[in-house]
Design brief:
The protein is mainly alpha-helical and 100 residues long. It contains six helices and no strands.
Length: 100
């Protein structure tokens, strides 16, 4: 697993974080990750991450579930809690507003 230390999140905080959704492609871009690294962080296949980024008219396009969007938000919260700086913080606007 990539996240070096386990971050304990209180259940109420976790519930609120999961209410904030973050598209996996926004997660990838915000943290400057490759498809492979984003897939590893989100416990998805690399093909799924690629499919989330395709145009909706593509036959291989996939729309991420709310659970995947919640996982991307929760993972971003953990990375921020660990003091990591996003490459594009503007993509984490909703999550950063929640934290402030």
């Amino acid at each position: 697993m990539i996240i070096a230390r386990k971050t304990e999140i209180e259940p109420l905080v976790l519930e609120n974080i999961l209410a904030v959704e973050l598209h996996p492609v926004s997660f990838k871009k915000a943290w400057g990750l490759t498809n492979e690294k984003a897939a590893e962080y989100l416990h998805l296949s690399e093909q799924a991450v690629v499919a989330y980024g395709l145009k909706p008219t593509s036959s291989k396009y996939r729309n991420p579930s709310p659970a995947v969007k919640g996982l991307a938000a929760a993972t971003s919260f953990i990375l921020l809690s660990d003091g990591r700086k996003p490459v594009k913080p503007e993509l984490l606007k909703d999550l950063l507003e929640f934290l402030n």
